Each structure stands twice: as C-alpha cells, then as structure tokens.
C-alpha cells in the first residue's frame, strides 16, 4: 500500500532471515537488515528516517516496549512514528505496558500523539478465546506520533 501511494525509499528490519528473504522477493525495499528489535540497536544513524512504522511486532513475547527510544533515535525531528498492537486478551498486559511507555515519552516532550485509533477487525483470530466478541477477529490499535523538534538552545 505504501509503495502504491508513492513511497519508494523503504527500508525493512526483521529478526528472521526467512522473513527478510520474503520481503526481498517483493522488490519493494531498497534496504533490508536483520536486527532483533529491542535487543540490538538499529544500524541507521540518528535522525535518519522521515517515518518509522512497526506493524505486527509490538506484542506479548515479541518486541519489548524498551524499543521505543531506539525508534525515536532514528526518526528525524518532526518525523512520524506509526505503531500497532493487538487488543486481544493475551496481549492486554503488554498493551497496558506499551501505552504507559508511550505516555511517558509524550509527557517528557519526546513526541506528540496525533492518533490512537481502535481497529475492530485487525486480524483473524487463531482461537475463539482470542476472538473479539465471537467475531473471529482480533481488535487492535494504531498509534501515530510525531517526534518533537529539538528545543532551541538557550544561553544563560
């Protein structure tokens, strides 16, 4: 979808060599790197990207919430971060932890929340227990933040 809308300079990161190979086969990415988010630093220099997205990886047993400062590090001031997580029962603890970390970074002035939107039919559920009200789907949330510009230096 991003490529169809004119975004042509896409870089991808995944902890799995197999997933990177699948991404490579699409021909959509200019750069692909193996990295375990939250455990290893990203190879990009500081303030490198206009936008950073993490879709389908922020969840229980996947990427820890401690990745957020690293995502901010590689985003340009004024750039955007689009993050997602699931709202299914087995992810509620993680979602609460994620939202607390997102709120702390906003409170510190690192970024500004532009959107937090619930998506009722985020993805197909793998079990009835995970299904949102028996719909066969898991709900999720899309968060959109804008990194705050660096405040001007004030001489004293």
UniProtKB/TrEMBL annotation:
Single Gene Ontology MF annotation: S-adenosylmethionine-dependent methyltransferase activity
Superkingdom of origin organism: Eukaryota
Matching Gene3D superfamilies: Vaccinia Virus protein VP39
Domain Methyltransferase type: 4-82
Protein name: MET27 protein
């Amino acid at each position: 979808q991003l490529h169809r809308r004119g975004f042509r300079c896409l870089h991808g990161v995944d902890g799995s060599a197999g997933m990177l190979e699948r991404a490579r086969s699409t021909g959509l990415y200019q750069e692909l790197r193996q990295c375990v988010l939250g455990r290893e630093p990203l190879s990009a220099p500081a303030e490198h990207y206009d936008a950073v997205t993490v879709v389908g990886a922020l969840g229980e047993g996947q990427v820890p919430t401690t990745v957020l400062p690293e995502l901010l590090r590689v985003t340009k001031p004024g750039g955007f971060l689009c993050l997602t997580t699931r709202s299914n029962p087995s992810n509620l603890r993680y979602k609460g932890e994620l939202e607390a970390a997102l709120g702390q970074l906003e409170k510190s002035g690192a970024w500004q929340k532009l959107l937090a939107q619930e998506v009722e039919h985020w993805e197909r559920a793998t079990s009835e227990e995970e299904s949102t009200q028996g719909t066969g789907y898991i709900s999720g949330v899309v968060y959109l933040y804008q990194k705050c510009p660096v405040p001007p230096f004030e001489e004293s």
